[in-house]
Amino acid sequence: MGLFDFLKKRNNQNKQISKSKDKKDFDISSMISVKTEIINIPPEPDVIPVKKLIKGMDPNEVGLYPHEVLLLSYAPKYYLEGNSYPGFWWYKYGVKDVDKCLISLKNRGFLQIGSLRLAIKKETVAVLKDILKDNGLKVSCKKAELVQRLINEVSEEKLNAIFTNRTYDLTNAGKEVLKKEEYIPYIHRHGIENLDIWSLTKKVQDKPGYPYRDVIWGYLNERSMVHIKNKDFGLYRNCRFSMSEFIKEEGKIDNAFTLLAEVIRYDLSGLSNGFSMQFMEIYVDGYFPYKNSIITMAPGITSRVVDYQEKKVLSDEDLKKKLYDEMSKIKLPFSVFTDDECVEIVLMEIQKDEEGLEKLYSKVKRRFKREYGLKK
Predict the structure, then answer these.
(1) What distance, in Å, lies between the first and last C-alpha atoms of the chain?
(2) What span, in angstroms and rounded, lies between the C-alpha atoms of 220 and 201?
(3) pLDDT tens-digit readout, 138-163
(4) For residue 13, is pLDDT > 80?
(5) Are the C-beta atoms of residues 289 and 365 closer than 8 Å to each other?
(6) What gap in Å lies between CA 35 and CA 52, rounded to an integer?
(7) What are phi and psi of 204, to 5 degrees?
(8) pTM of the prediction?
(9) What is the mean pLDDT of residues 163-171?
């Protein structure tokens, strides 16, 4: 984040725990005045067709490319016809004709036409109950039992006439591909540190025999070191947060909390991408007061601290000690708040003590101005 980005109120920076940013709608008519002029609206960025994206890339051992493996993971949700596909197939992966790709996967033996049972399971409970009523059957119980009751009590011929639109289903070959390359749908849904299905596939192929999670972890470690070397403190913070979430998925909640404490420490430091000590007089207006500050706890981060406290059954004092122990290990080139103050802020955020936070930020503002010789 550059200086001017840093000075924007943080609606979507540390107040968010992902990299995505909300876009605010605005009425362009209130900003311009025209009579007959034609306003040229910039076109959307060009999409790279999948043929270009896979050029020079080796397919896997059964001849599939990453976008095809990803499509296998979605195929059971799609019908043989009449689908409305998400825009990401085109904008992210350059696949314009998803139906053609599905048919190709079916013809190569990775997909098949879904069973009658699968078609029934795709329907809503309300529809299933209506069909059961029409056939004089009970409609109480869970969905799985409703499906089984229809199969047991209604003739296959009648059910085939009702459930005409079938979905795709994976063959054993398709299941085997997804099992071996589960990292492709994983990274599609997580989007960690700019990794995508193409770049992660290349990294996994370059390290045969390595579990894909080890490959991702190694990449995140490398990226975090690059960010800190370049003094891109905001990017470093985001990378460490991704690492915290990543190992939490593996049940390593203590290690995840250590990284989370580091994220909090950076959030409350005032450091940013492109940070410079010469701009203290400008930064101060973004740091204080609390209600307008860009260096506060993100709600999602606070909820993760609470979750950790509950899982570990920690008292507030135990949590404070744990936070201080973790934060005191972190060496920063600059920080608005001390380690003790950061710990207090975390507890006050959990307790929603806005009055206490206002007082603490006011006290630190006075100290900050004295230390850097700023005007009152």
Answers:
(1) 28
(2) 15
(3) 988 899 999 999 999 999 899 989 98
(4) no
(5) yes
(6) 43
(7) -70, -40
(8) 0.82
(9) 93
CA 196 – CA 217 distance, rounded (Å): 14
Are residues 87 and 74 in contact, defined by beta-carbon separation less than 8 angstroms?
no
How far is residue 348's CA from residue 327's CA, in Å, rounded to a whole number?
A: 17
Q: To the nearest whole number, what is the mean pLDDT of the chain? A: 89
At 106, give phi and psi (nearest 5°): -65, -45
Q: Give the three-class secondary structure for 113.
A: strand
Rounding to the nearest 10 degrees, give the CA dihedral for residues 308, 311, 314, 318: -40
Give the pLDDT confidence of 70-128 residue by residue, as tens digits.
999 999 999 999 999 999 999 999 999 999 999 999 999 999 999 999 889 888 899 99
- d(CA 270, CA 7) in angstroms, rounded, equals 11
On whether the CB atoms of residues 90 and 49 are closer than 8 A, the answer is: no
Listed in sequence order, the DSSP H helices in 249-371 are: 253-267, 280-287, 299-312, 316-327, 339-350, 354-371
Cα 312 to Cα 261, 299, 316, 322: the distances in Å are 15, 20, 12, 11
Tell me which residue has tokens 């409350």: 268
And the tokens for 108? 């190569």
Task: Say what the pLDDT of residue 45 is.
Answer: 62
Beta-sheet strands, E only, within the chain: 111-113, 168-170
Rg, C-alpha atoms of the chain: 27
Angle (CA) 81-172-67 rounded to 5° is: 55
| pLDDT the model gives residue 44 | 54
pLDDT band for position 362 (cuts 50, 70, 90): very high
> CA 247, CA 102: separation in Å to the nearest integer?
34
Residue 223 tokens, joined:
């990226």
